[in-house]
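Components:
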Amino acid sequence: MVTILGVNGSPRKYGNVSFLLNLALKGAEMEGAKVRIIHLYDYDIKPCLGCLSDDQYACRYPCVIEDDMRKLYEMVLESNGIIFATPIYWYAPSGVMKNFIDRLTVFENMLYIDGTCWTEGKVAGIIAVGNDSGGVNTFSTLMATLNSMGFIIPPWATAVFNKMSDITKERNVLLDAINIGRIVTMMSKRVEGLERKWFKVIGDQELENMINDIALTVNKEKNTQWPSRKKEILKLRKQQ
Amino acid sequence: MVTILGVNGSPRKYGNVSFLLNLALKGAEMEGAKVRIIHLYDYDIKPCLGCLSDDQYACRYPCVIEDDMRKLYEMVLESNGIIFATPIYWYAPSGVMKNFIDRLTVFENMLYIDGTCWTEGKVAGIIAVGNDSGGVNTFSTLMATLNSMGFIIPPWATAVFNKMSDITKERNVLLDAINIGRIVTMMSKRVEGLERKWFKVIGDQELENMINDIALTVNKEKNTQWPSRKKEILKLRKQQ
Amino acid sequence: MVTILGVNGSPRKYGNVSFLLNLALKGAEMEGAKVRIIHLYDYDIKPCLGCLSDDQYACRYPCVIEDDMRKLYEMVLESNGIIFATPIYWYAPSGVMKNFIDRLTVFENMLYIDGTCWTEGKVAGIIAVGNDSGGVNTFSTLMATLNSMGFIIPPWATAVFNKMSDITKERNVLLDAINIGRIVTMMSKRVEGLERKWFKVIGDQELENMINDIALTVNKEKNTQWPSRKKEILKLRKQQ
Amino acid sequence: MVTILGVNGSPRKYGNVSFLLNLALKGAEMEGAKVRIIHLYDYDIKPCLGCLSDDQYACRYPCVIEDDMRKLYEMVLESNGIIFATPIYWYAPSGVMKNFIDRLTVFENMLYIDGTCWTEGKVAGIIAVGNDSGGVNTFSTLMATLNSMGFIIPPWATAVFNKMSDITKERNVLLDAINIGRIVTMMSKRVEGLERKWFKVIGDQELENMINDIALTVNKEKNTQWPSRKKEILKLRKQQ
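Structure:
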């Protein structure tokens, strides 16, 4: 059985972010997931100290900061999929959601410690809600970030609502939210049991040789094609 | 056997974009994929006419524009995974790559015609190469776009190179490129045979009822919690 | 005399963010500005509560939250130009910088209270520093945000550094930083004395009439040109 | 008298992009500007060849490509302000607008040829129109790009419309559009007569010396503060 974690980055539990997140978790349950929800504003989450800018190896799990992330880290590790639900504050996630994201670096940076990224292969969904605009800007950066942490992004992993109308009447958005829960769960089941390490192929001699061969081939092509093009440009320039 | 399509959005065949794309396709072959490459600058790809802003149902496959996209559409449909390789021109894909992306709308908009998105479930990788900066800005928008077309984004689906040094000496970037090919292929195999329609659940009565139930519950909570909060804010305001 | 405020969103005072910010402020002094620097990590800055999602008029200066922003708000108001210097944490500003930005909403939302935005006409510069990538993604969202708060963005208002080399040897970046200070100051002087209210023209009857006239004209054109185009598309469709 | 150029990146002349652009130009005329409009789809604009990736000095005005940009380049040079109006195609400008932007690189890259950027000090406004979302994502990248070409971004330089309702009834958006014209004009007048070269300070000996001094000071601080912090982190690590 897969576990899906819903992360609420809004200060409200009764608001639209929370509403869509609850819908998504219902969708996850429909597909057989065990679900949990956390409201970030209920926890003490201190901002990242960026230790790795002092020393690449200083950032690793567990984080040096002693706060409520200790509990939240556990929940992240226990989850197959995570749905990040955030209000849109100035075209981006709330500062609290941002702090939570930044603090996940300890998992990603394990690449330098034990050679694996501890969030690799988890599945992500994103919900973003605001009063007017910035939904896509919010989820594009979030999606890029999560993917760089090794998350899988399943099809249509996002739901955006940024109008001031009554959300309970917006069928398409409600459907998007429920589908996020469903899709994150279905994808989580699809990849369950895969060992972490899709990414890591460092030290593979066959690969090293291949790179060298391709580099050689391409360099040869460069030496024959590149100069001729440069000449061509210079020729065009002279004619002017 | 899965087919991976490499799409080169650079005017150069001997340049860094093409180099990394070729590496990625070698990585795909390592995992057993059949690969193809297309150089967009070799084709006549006219810009999108945005028909759907006249009529939501006017945009559908085949596109009304008669040009080389006719051939390229076929190749897209035949592929399980697609690797989009683009130069970084002003923090974004090249105009030619952008035109190619825009023209894929005919597949996505089939949602309104036959209820399915024809790119759903395909797997995407992204390569972005430039002289200095803008790599993340390029791939975040591209990733968001492709996901909204139903593409799956596997872990670490991106390779960026934006220095002016000799790319053949940048082992990490070469490794990233090869891994994109591998990962896109592995994910393609993992989801092979899934029917299109992960997303579409319109017309499901159980779902409709569930939405109504949740909406009711949340509305109740709003009516009990929201006013008290508003009062609280007004109280704070008065004290000032 | 104009005042330029440097805002450090990094946990370090001895790091690269702080270094470039100090350079920028030297550049500002070269042009005759009075400068101040604040290190956000030294202050207690609570996250935004998003009051305006409860009530559009609830968000206004002073913010209901009682914390160190009280002091910082004053400094923002007293400044003609502000240089936002942030580490790049996951392709975006640090969570602490994000909280600071979010809390500035009280000034922007004064549009609904007294008809003016209190940050209108201030001049912004941006410094973003990281280990590898995401500089453009960081400053594009930040720039869009600040502009939507009424800030002027002078030419080349950004400096990015995202390598792991010794920054003190990167002349171009150092120059960019100093220039940000100079340019923000020069622009601040150029617009000094302008009354706030460039934006606000609500209630202008001449404008209302003009809008109506143009709307009428364009509608006429639509009625003559739009249908013919629709016909054309339908005709193309039929031929397929 | 200042000249404001309106650039329409939509295939439609009767659509919403064109409508808002026309409003913006009326706003510009209200402030005394001379205005011109160009519809990019009427011109043959070939995609950028990225010459500077072959040779940094190969890209310069006039561009080696002989097409209609020859005329458009002239119009850009003659303008004090430019309003870029684009449909939102997949969270970004249309491919045609992108090609136009990419081709402006010849002006920016003059920095390497004659030491000045030929678009420096021009003023930019942005209009983005779509059916649903992506407005902010579109203008944030565009704004970052134009600023990196030396454009000034005046307060509230953007208007976004992304609903399917009748635009002629959306007073706020119409007002935003007119204001863009006004503000771009007002700012153009404010900076008229400034010599190009705000940015360029290369070769300034005083500046070089200053950089060296600051670098020395900061390095000293690093040597005293950095090690202690590293020790502190290591100490924390050991306690775990």
